[in-house]
Amino acid sequence: MYAVESLIPDKLSKTENPTSMGALFLDAGKISITDAEAIIALQKRKGLRFGEAAKALGLINDDDIQKALSQQFNFPFLVASDHDFSQELVAAYHPFSPQVEALRAVRGQLMLRWFIDAHKTLAIVSPSRGDGRSHVAANLAIVFSQLGERTLLIDADLRQSRQQGLFKIQSAYGLSDILAGRADMAAITRIPAFRDLSVLPAGTLPPNPVELISRGLKNCLKQLQSQFDVILIDTPSADQGIDAQIIASQCGGALLVARQHQTRLNDLQALKDLLHDSGNQCLGAVLNDF
Predict the structure, then answer these.
(1) 226-259 in b/e burial notation, b at 16+ Cβ within 10 A?
(2) CB under 8 Å to 5, separation ≥6 — which residues?
(3) Residue ranges of the chain that CATH labels 3.40.50.300
(4) Distances in whole angstroms, Cα of residue 29 to Cα of each of 33, 72, 187
(5) Backbone phi and psi for residue 151, each to the nearest 5 degrees, phi listed first
(6) Across the strands, what pairs with 220?
(7) What count of Cα atoms within 13 Å lies in the side-chain half-sphere of residue 178?
(8) pLDDT in tens, 133-142
(9) Which residues of 136-155 are buried (b: 16+ CB within 10 A; e: fewer)?
(10) SS3 138
(11) Higher model confidence: residue 228 or residue 80?
(12) Are 206 and 212 in contact (CB under 8 A)?
């Protein structure tokens, strides 16, 4: 069941009551004024909700109703028919699944234990390639944005970047270009489909990722902290170099990602020890089974 306001026949317009389900369908081009009048007539005759009546007339489907509800309740998520992003973004396509509920639990712990006071940045790290680090970072960013936090996801994996592909970002510029002085903060891409979410892709993959990160990331983050509440940083896996350690040291904290039946416990412990020895706080580990 869902609660929505019905449109009043003599006040049908695209600007009238924009939060009603009928107005949302009109604005999206799903129904016409004539369709709306037929829906309201059936709604009154049968005692149905607006969405139920529209569906009964074959004008909309369940996906349309869910999308309208997400707009009404300021909880953006994507329907299965929306192919603008990778299906790996389960927090957007399947926001009520057990997997995403687990991510919300992680979000809650991070809000209580880290993203308070001066803490705004967090590195997402893993021992090896294929651990699902980028997948976790992207979906965690989405659930933070669904909470209403101004969220920035930075792809600092300047070796094998993935975030540009997951969010299907067209921009050719990103973090590496900013650090090299070839671009400015306009390289950050606002993602309109999600509430309060922006992504800074990796950009041009450089021949000297460690040097770029070492000399420029700290100042870059300092500029961004005034604009965002939560900044999550996707890093290269630890087996590719010391990039993740450098990035974590500039954030002060890291979240470990391990993959079920794949990540070796000894490797995870070794990475935790390395981060600890560098003065970084390890906030915990996420066991990924995707």
Answers:
(1) eebbbbbbbbbbbeeeebbbbbbbbbbbbbbbbb
(2) 17, 19, 20, 21, 22, 50
(3) 90-288
(4) 10, 17, 32
(5) -115, 135
(6) none
(7) 25
(8) 999 999 999 9
(9) bbbbbbbbbbbbebbbbbbb
(10) helix
(11) 228
(12) yes
As given in the structure block, the two tokens for residue 139 are: 């979906």
SS3 83: coil
Q: Quick check: helix, strand or coil at residue 155? A: strand
Q: Are 155 and 161 in contact (CB under 8 A)?
A: yes
**27 or 254: which leads in pLDDT:** 254
Fold designation for 90-288? Rossmann fold (3.40.50)
Side by side, the strands of the sheet bearing 151-155 are 189-190, 197-200, 151-155, 230-234, 121-125, 253-259, 281-288
Pick from 165, 149, 134: which is nearest to 231 by CA? 149
Give the global pTM.
0.79
Tokens of residue 157, six digits: 């994996």
Strand residues in the chain grouped as ranges (E):
121-125, 151-155, 189-190, 197-200, 230-234, 253-259, 281-288
Number of neighbouring beta carbons within 10 Å of residue 114: 20
For the record, the structure tokens of 274 come out as 């390395």
Pairing type for strands 197-200 and 189-190 reads antiparallel
